[in-house]
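Researcher: Quick test of sequence recovery. Tokens follow.
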């Protein structure tokens, strides 16, 4: 059994049309530390500019290769969208269907 995870926190977005948040990065960092302290290494922390659509999707692909006995935890702290996508750092608010993660 292995511990695998992804913790994402985005306070600052590339789009000038996305308002900035104040605690999302801190929340993801705290959750990453909590799980790492409890379950050991194995999780990735992505914040702000690191949390692009391509980086997150690449890690999702890695997590999909886990074994049935692995523990997988995903934490995502960011803006929500009316259509329930994950708003990545590089998401375009006027084109969420193509630039965010469904």
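Model:
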């Amino acid at each position: 059994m292995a511990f695998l995870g992804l913790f994402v926190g985005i306070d600052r977005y590339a789009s000038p049309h996305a308002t900035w948040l104040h605690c999302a990065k801190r929340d993801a960092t705290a959750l990453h530390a909590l799980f790492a302290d409890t379950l050991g290494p194995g999780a990735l922390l992505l914040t702000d500019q690191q949390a692009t659509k391509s980086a997150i999707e690449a890690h999702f692909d890695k997590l999909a290769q886990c074994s049935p006995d692995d523990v997988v935890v995903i934490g995502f702290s960011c803006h929500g969208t009316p259509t329930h996508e994950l708003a990545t750092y590089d998401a375009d608010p006027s084109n969420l269907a193509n630039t965010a993660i469904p």
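Helices lie at 24-39, 53-63, 96-99.
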